[in-house]
Amino acid sequence: MIKIIPMKEEHIPGIHEIEKSCFTIPWSKEAFEKELRENPLAYYIVAELENTVLGYAGMWVIADEGHITNIAVHPDFQHQGVGTLLMKHLIDEARSKNFFGLTLEVRESNVKAQNLYKKFGFINEGLRKGYYQDTGENAIIMWKYFNN
Ligand SMILES: CC(C)(COP(=O)(O)OP(=O)(O)OC[C@H]1O[C@@H](n2cnc3c(N)ncnc32)[C@H](O)[C@@H]1OP(=O)(O)O)[C@@H](O)C(=O)NCCC(=O)NCCS
């Protein structure tokens, strides 16, 4: 059974492999270490099956907002519900802490991720023009609001 558990340093090698296979500008292992060791705003989780990391997600908790920093699933395990499990967990956490909302940025071309976010009630709220350094692509800013 897939478990959603808090991210620990021992997960970072597996996370970094996924990061490299999913993103053109991957976070370094050190970036994840720094998040876990030094960032009091960080909230990170992994989806694990028999000690293998299938995916991960995280956010910065800023007052009553959750800023989702990353969500990714190993390419071999995509479109099998893992992203849904991770997003459900972040949303449950946000609801339990009475967040105002959750927000994130996504590449205009990343339809897969946008579909996942829309499924959970995220809506387009703005555009950051030329946000991504590698391609100059725009970022769509999405929000999911909770009616507290
Ligand atoms: C986006 C991502 C996290 C989704 O995770 P996942 O485990 O594949 O998602 P799920 O299997 O739970 O699917 C959830 C929804 O995502 C969307 N989705 C997933 N794969 C898709 C695909 N190949 N094409 C279109 N939509 C897709 C669908 O809306 C799907 O709902 P459905 O099954 O009812 O159609 C995953 O594709 C991924 O890791 N992509 C690379 C990293 C990335 O782009 N992260 C987001 C950065 S902003």
Automatic annotation (TrEMBL):
The reaction(s) this protein catalyses: N-terminal L-alanyl-[ribosomal protein bS18] + acetyl-CoA = N-terminal N(alpha)-acetyl-L-alanyl-[ribosomal protein bS18] + CoA + H(+)
Keywords: Acyltransferase, Cytoplasm, Ribonucleoprotein, Ribosomal protein, Transferase
Compartments where found: Cytoplasm
Listed EC numbers: 2.3.1.266
One GO CC annotation: ribosome
One of the Pfam families matching this protein, by short name: Acetyltransf_1
Keyword check for Magnesium: no
Top-level EC class: transferase
The keyword Cell inner membrane belongs to this UniProt entry's keyword annotation: no
Domain N-acetyltransferase stretches: 2-147
Reported function: Acetylates the N-terminal alanine of ribosomal protein bS18.
Family listed: Belongs to the acetyltransferase family. RimI subfamily.
Matches recorded under PANTHER family: ACETYLTRANSFERASE, ACETYLTRANSFERASE YPEA
Full protein name: [Ribosomal protein bS18]-alanine N-acetyltransferase
Species annotation: Defluviitalea saccharophila
